[in-house]
Protein backbone atom coordinates (compact mmCIF):
# COMPACT_ATOMS: atom_id res chain seq x y z
CA UNK A 1 0.00 0.00 0.00
CA UNK A 2 2.75 2.46 0.92
CA UNK A 3 4.77 1.67 -2.22
CA UNK A 4 1.71 1.97 -4.44
CA UNK A 5 0.66 5.27 -2.85
CA UNK A 6 4.13 6.78 -3.33
CA UNK A 7 4.26 5.66 -6.96
CA UNK A 8 0.72 6.90 -7.61
CA UNK A 9 1.61 10.35 -6.27
CA UNK A 10 4.87 10.22 -8.22
CA UNK A 11 2.93 9.74 -11.45
CA UNK A 12 1.41 13.19 -10.88
CA UNK A 13 4.74 14.84 -10.04
CA UNK A 14 5.93 17.89 -11.95
CA UNK A 15 9.37 16.27 -12.12
CA UNK A 16 9.59 14.68 -15.58
CA UNK A 17 12.12 12.01 -14.63
CA UNK A 18 10.17 10.90 -11.53
CA UNK A 19 6.93 10.82 -13.51
CA UNK A 20 8.48 8.68 -16.26
CA UNK A 21 10.04 6.23 -13.79
CA UNK A 22 6.75 5.77 -11.93
CA UNK A 23 4.83 5.34 -15.18
CA UNK A 24 7.35 2.76 -16.43
CA UNK A 25 7.04 0.85 -13.16
CA UNK A 26 3.25 0.68 -13.43
CA UNK A 27 3.20 -0.30 -17.09
CA UNK A 28 5.89 -2.94 -16.63
CA UNK A 29 4.64 -4.80 -13.57
CA UNK A 30 0.93 -4.34 -14.22
CA UNK A 31 1.06 -6.03 -17.62
CA UNK A 32 3.10 -9.12 -16.74
CA UNK A 33 1.13 -12.05 -15.24
CA UNK A 34 1.73 -12.39 -11.51
CA UNK A 35 2.67 -16.07 -11.87
CA UNK A 36 5.53 -15.20 -14.22
CA UNK A 37 6.71 -12.50 -11.83
CA UNK A 38 6.78 -14.94 -8.93
CA UNK A 39 8.82 -17.39 -10.99
CA UNK A 40 11.14 -14.58 -12.11
CA UNK A 41 11.87 -13.45 -8.55
CA UNK A 42 12.38 -17.03 -7.41
CA UNK A 43 14.83 -17.77 -10.22
CA UNK A 44 16.68 -14.48 -9.68
CA UNK A 45 17.12 -15.17 -5.96
CA UNK A 46 18.41 -18.67 -6.64
CA UNK A 47 20.76 -17.45 -9.37
CA UNK A 48 22.15 -14.32 -7.72
CA UNK A 49 22.43 -15.36 -4.08
CA UNK A 50 25.58 -17.26 -3.03
CA UNK A 51 25.51 -20.78 -1.56
CA UNK A 52 25.13 -21.19 2.19
CA UNK A 53 28.85 -21.75 2.68
CA UNK A 54 29.52 -18.30 1.17
CA UNK A 55 26.51 -16.52 2.70
CA UNK A 56 26.48 -12.73 2.55
CA UNK A 57 26.77 -10.92 5.88
CA UNK A 58 25.05 -7.53 5.33
CA UNK A 59 24.98 -6.79 9.07
CA UNK A 60 26.20 -8.48 12.26
CA UNK A 61 24.16 -11.60 12.90
CA UNK A 62 22.43 -11.51 9.50
CA UNK A 63 23.10 -13.91 6.62
CA UNK A 64 21.66 -13.98 3.11
CA UNK A 65 22.16 -16.97 0.81
CA UNK A 66 20.34 -19.54 -1.28
CA UNK A 67 19.13 -20.97 2.01
CA UNK A 68 17.21 -17.78 2.78
CA UNK A 69 17.60 -14.80 5.06
CA UNK A 70 18.65 -15.47 8.67
CA UNK A 71 18.47 -12.81 11.38
CA UNK A 72 18.70 -12.47 15.20
CA UNK A 73 15.57 -13.26 17.18
CA UNK A 74 14.75 -12.16 20.75
CA UNK A 75 14.66 -14.97 23.29
CA UNK A 76 11.16 -14.74 24.71
CA UNK A 77 10.78 -13.51 28.27
CA UNK A 78 7.98 -11.77 30.24
CA UNK A 79 9.63 -8.44 29.51
CA UNK A 80 8.67 -8.70 25.84
CA UNK A 81 5.05 -9.11 26.87
CA UNK A 82 5.26 -5.77 28.65
CA UNK A 83 6.86 -4.30 25.51
CA UNK A 84 3.86 -5.49 23.52
CA UNK A 85 1.52 -3.99 26.11
CA UNK A 86 3.46 -0.72 25.87
CA UNK A 87 3.14 -0.76 22.09
CA UNK A 88 -0.63 -1.26 22.35
CA UNK A 89 -0.93 1.49 24.94
CA UNK A 90 1.25 3.83 22.89
CA UNK A 91 -0.85 3.17 19.80
CA UNK A 92 -4.02 3.99 21.73
CA UNK A 93 -2.50 7.24 23.04
CA UNK A 94 -1.26 8.14 19.55
CA UNK A 95 -4.79 7.65 18.21
CA UNK A 96 -6.19 9.91 20.93
CA UNK A 97 -3.55 12.54 20.15
CA UNK A 98 -4.43 12.39 16.46
CA UNK A 99 -8.13 12.88 17.23
CA UNK A 100 -7.28 15.84 19.46
CA UNK A 101 -5.06 17.40 16.78
CA UNK A 102 -7.84 17.04 14.20
CA UNK A 103 -10.39 18.67 16.53
CA UNK A 104 -7.99 21.54 17.19
CA UNK A 105 -7.51 22.01 13.47
CA UNK A 106 -11.28 22.09 12.93
CA UNK A 107 -11.74 24.65 15.72
CA UNK A 108 -8.77 26.95 15.12
CA UNK A 109 -7.61 26.23 11.58
CA UNK A 110 -4.08 25.68 12.90
CA UNK A 111 -2.62 22.42 11.62
CA UNK A 112 -0.65 20.43 14.15
CA UNK A 113 1.94 17.77 13.38
CA UNK A 114 0.42 14.28 13.62
CA UNK A 115 2.85 11.74 12.18
CA UNK A 116 6.02 12.35 14.17
CA UNK A 117 4.35 13.00 17.54
CA UNK A 118 2.27 9.84 17.08
CA UNK A 119 5.36 7.79 16.27
CA UNK A 120 7.17 9.31 19.25
CA UNK A 121 4.30 8.33 21.57
CA UNK A 122 4.38 4.73 20.32
CA UNK A 123 8.18 4.52 20.70
CA UNK A 124 7.97 5.91 24.24
CA UNK A 125 5.28 3.33 25.07
CA UNK A 126 7.43 0.48 23.77
CA UNK A 127 10.50 1.80 25.61
CA UNK A 128 8.57 2.17 28.86
CA UNK A 129 7.30 -1.42 28.57
CA UNK A 130 10.84 -2.59 27.86
CA UNK A 131 12.15 -0.85 30.99
CA UNK A 132 9.32 -2.16 33.17
CA UNK A 133 9.99 -5.66 31.85
CA UNK A 134 13.58 -5.57 33.07
CA UNK A 135 15.12 -4.34 29.79
CA UNK A 136 15.60 -7.80 28.21
CA UNK A 137 18.37 -7.93 25.64
CA UNK A 138 18.97 -11.64 25.11
CA UNK A 139 19.05 -12.53 21.41
CA UNK A 140 19.29 -15.81 19.56
CA UNK A 141 22.01 -14.80 17.09
CA UNK A 142 22.58 -16.99 14.01
CA UNK A 143 25.95 -18.65 13.64
CA UNK A 144 27.53 -19.65 10.37
CA UNK A 145 29.02 -23.13 10.28
CA UNK A 146 30.87 -24.93 7.52
CA UNK A 147 27.68 -26.30 5.99
CA UNK A 148 24.80 -24.08 7.12
CA UNK A 149 23.61 -21.27 9.36
CA UNK A 150 22.07 -22.28 12.67
CA UNK A 151 20.02 -20.35 15.21
CA UNK A 152 18.03 -17.14 14.94
CA UNK A 153 14.99 -16.60 12.79
CA UNK A 154 14.89 -17.38 9.09
CA UNK A 155 12.76 -16.88 6.00
CA UNK A 156 13.13 -19.10 2.96
CA UNK A 157 13.91 -17.94 -0.61
CA UNK A 158 10.42 -19.09 -1.56
CA UNK A 159 8.88 -16.73 0.98
CA UNK A 160 11.11 -13.86 -0.17
CA UNK A 161 10.14 -14.46 -3.80
CA UNK A 162 6.45 -14.62 -2.90
CA UNK A 163 6.62 -11.42 -0.84
CA UNK A 164 8.55 -9.47 -3.48
CA UNK A 165 6.39 -10.70 -6.35
CA UNK A 166 3.01 -10.01 -4.75
CA UNK A 167 4.07 -6.69 -3.22
CA UNK A 168 5.52 -5.28 -6.45
CA UNK A 169 2.66 -6.59 -8.61
CA UNK A 170 -0.10 -5.29 -6.32
CA UNK A 171 1.65 -1.93 -5.83
CA UNK A 172 1.34 -1.23 -9.57
CA UNK A 173 -2.45 -1.51 -9.38
CA UNK A 174 -2.66 0.48 -6.15
CA UNK A 175 -0.60 3.24 -7.79
CA UNK A 176 -3.20 3.60 -10.55
CA UNK A 177 -6.01 3.62 -7.99
CA UNK A 178 -4.32 6.40 -6.01
CA UNK A 179 -3.54 8.41 -9.16
CA UNK A 180 -7.11 8.18 -10.45
CA UNK A 181 -8.51 9.02 -7.01
CA UNK A 182 -6.42 12.19 -6.77
CA UNK A 183 -7.35 13.24 -10.30
CA UNK A 184 -11.03 12.70 -9.43
CA UNK A 185 -10.87 15.62 -7.00
CA UNK A 186 -12.34 18.71 -8.73
CA UNK A 187 -9.76 21.17 -10.00
CA UNK A 188 -11.49 23.94 -8.09
CA UNK A 189 -10.32 22.35 -4.85
CA UNK A 190 -6.70 22.67 -5.99
CA UNK A 191 -7.25 26.28 -7.02
CA UNK A 192 -8.79 27.02 -3.63
CA UNK A 193 -5.79 25.42 -1.91
CA UNK A 194 -3.43 27.51 -4.04
CA UNK A 195 -5.35 30.66 -3.16
CA UNK A 196 -4.83 29.88 0.53
CA UNK A 197 -1.08 29.61 -0.03
CA UNK A 198 -0.82 25.91 0.82
CA UNK A 199 2.31 24.14 -0.31
CA UNK A 200 2.10 21.08 -2.54
CA UNK A 201 2.68 18.82 0.47
CA UNK A 202 -0.05 20.49 2.51
CA UNK A 203 -2.42 20.31 -0.46
CA UNK A 204 -1.93 16.56 -0.64
CA UNK A 205 -2.29 16.15 3.11
CA UNK A 206 -5.24 18.45 3.77
CA UNK A 207 -7.16 18.72 0.49
CA UNK A 208 -6.42 16.07 -2.14
CA UNK A 209 -5.90 12.80 -0.25
CA UNK A 210 -8.82 13.20 2.21
CA UNK A 211 -11.23 13.75 -0.69
CA UNK A 212 -9.59 11.17 -2.95
CA UNK A 213 -9.90 8.56 -0.20
CA UNK A 214 -13.62 8.25 -0.85
CA UNK A 215 -12.88 7.26 -4.45
CA UNK A 216 -9.85 5.12 -3.60
CA UNK A 217 -11.30 2.81 -0.93
CA UNK A 218 -13.75 0.68 -3.03
CA UNK A 219 -11.24 -0.35 -5.74
CA UNK A 220 -8.55 -0.71 -3.06
CA UNK A 221 -10.78 -3.29 -1.37
CA UNK A 222 -10.80 -5.29 -4.60
CA UNK A 223 -7.00 -5.23 -4.72
CA UNK A 224 -6.73 -6.50 -1.15
CA UNK A 225 -9.10 -9.33 -2.03
CA UNK A 226 -7.05 -10.11 -5.15
CA UNK A 227 -3.88 -10.12 -3.05
CA UNK A 228 -5.42 -12.66 -0.67
CA UNK A 229 -6.41 -14.94 -3.52
CA UNK A 230 -3.15 -14.47 -5.43
CA UNK A 231 -1.28 -15.81 -2.40
CA UNK A 232 -2.52 -19.27 -3.45
CA UNK A 233 0.09 -19.09 -6.24
CA UNK A 234 2.77 -19.67 -3.59
CA UNK A 235 2.66 -23.34 -4.54
CA UNK A 236 4.23 -22.39 -7.89
CA UNK A 237 7.51 -21.43 -6.19
CA UNK A 238 7.43 -24.27 -3.69
CA UNK A 239 6.33 -22.30 -0.62
CA UNK A 240 4.33 -24.55 1.74
CA UNK A 241 1.17 -22.46 2.03
CA UNK A 242 -2.39 -23.65 2.63
CA UNK A 243 -2.83 -24.94 -0.92
CA UNK A 244 0.46 -26.88 -0.87
CA UNK A 245 -0.27 -28.48 2.49
CA UNK A 246 -3.79 -29.35 1.38
CA UNK A 247 -2.43 -30.97 -1.77
CA UNK A 248 -0.11 -33.10 0.35
CA UNK A 249 -3.00 -34.08 2.60
CA UNK A 250 -5.15 -34.87 -0.44
CA UNK A 251 -2.48 -37.15 -1.89
CA UNK A 252 -2.05 -39.01 1.40
CA UNK A 253 -5.73 -39.40 2.30
CA UNK A 254 -7.53 -39.27 -1.05
CA UNK A 255 -10.21 -37.00 0.44
CA UNK A 256 -10.33 -34.43 -2.35
CA UNK A 257 -13.74 -32.94 -1.55
CA UNK A 258 -12.90 -32.30 2.12
CA UNK A 259 -9.48 -30.77 1.36
CA UNK A 260 -10.79 -28.46 -1.35
CA UNK A 261 -13.73 -27.46 0.86
CA UNK A 262 -11.33 -26.46 3.65
CA UNK A 263 -9.26 -24.36 1.22
CA UNK A 264 -12.39 -22.64 -0.07
CA UNK A 265 -13.66 -22.00 3.47
CA UNK A 266 -10.35 -20.45 4.59
CA UNK A 267 -10.07 -18.13 1.59
CA UNK A 268 -13.75 -17.23 1.85
CA UNK A 269 -13.31 -16.33 5.53
CA UNK A 270 -10.24 -14.21 4.82
CA UNK A 271 -11.94 -12.43 1.92
CA UNK A 272 -15.17 -11.74 3.80
CA UNK A 273 -13.21 -10.44 6.81
CA UNK A 274 -11.19 -8.12 4.58
CA UNK A 275 -14.31 -6.90 2.80
CA UNK A 276 -16.11 -6.27 6.10
CA UNK A 277 -13.18 -4.25 7.50
CA UNK A 278 -12.82 -2.17 4.34
CA UNK A 279 -16.59 -1.58 4.10
CA UNK A 280 -16.56 -0.32 7.68
CA UNK A 281 -13.68 2.03 6.86
CA UNK A 282 -15.43 3.14 3.67
CA UNK A 283 -18.55 4.01 5.67
CA UNK A 284 -16.45 6.15 8.03
CA UNK A 285 -14.78 7.99 5.16
CA UNK A 286 -17.99 8.53 3.16
CA UNK A 287 -19.58 11.96 2.89
CA UNK A 288 -22.44 12.28 5.36
CA UNK A 289 -25.39 14.06 3.83
CA UNK A 290 -27.57 16.21 6.05
List the helices and strands and how they pair.
Layout: H1 2-10, H2 16-30, H3 34-48, E1 56-59, E2 62-65, E3 68-71, E4 73-74, H4 78-108, H5 115-132, E5 139-140, E6 143-144, E7 149-150, E8 153-155, H6 157-183, H7 187-195, H8 200-230, H9 242-253, H10 256-285
Antiparallel strand pairs: 1-2, 2-3, 3-8, 4-5, 6-7
Helix pairs in contact: 1-6, 2-6, 3-6, 4-5, 6-8, 8-10, 9-10
Task: Explain how this protein is built.
The chain is α+β, with helices and mostly antiparallel strands. A hairpin with a 4-residue loop joins strand 6 and strand 7 (149-150). The longest helix has 31 residues, at 78-108. The strands form 3 sheets. A 4-stranded antiparallel β-sheet has the order 1-2-3-8. It starts with a helix and ends in a 5-residue tail after the last helix. The chain is globular, with a radius of gyration of 23 Å. It has a domain at 1-31 and 156-290: MetI-like fold, CATH 1.10.3720. Helix 8 packs antiparallel against helix 10 (256-285) and helix 9 packs antiparallel against helix 10 (256-285). The protein is 68% helix and 8% strand. The relative contact order is 0.12. It is built from 10 helices and 8 strands. The chain has helices at residues 2-10, 16-30, 34-48, 78-108, 115-132, 157-183, 187-195, 200-230, 242-253, 256-285; strands spanning 56-59, 62-65, 68-71, 73-74, 139-140, 143-144, 149-150, 153-155.
Amino acid sequence: TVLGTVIGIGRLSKNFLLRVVCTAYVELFRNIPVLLQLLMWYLLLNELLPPIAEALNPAPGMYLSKGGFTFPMPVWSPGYGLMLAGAIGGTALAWLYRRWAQRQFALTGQARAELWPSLAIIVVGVYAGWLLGGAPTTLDVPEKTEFNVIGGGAVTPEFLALTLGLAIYTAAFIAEIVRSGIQAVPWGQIEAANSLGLTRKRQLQLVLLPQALRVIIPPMTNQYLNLTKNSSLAVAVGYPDLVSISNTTLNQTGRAVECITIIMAVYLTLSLSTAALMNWYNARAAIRER
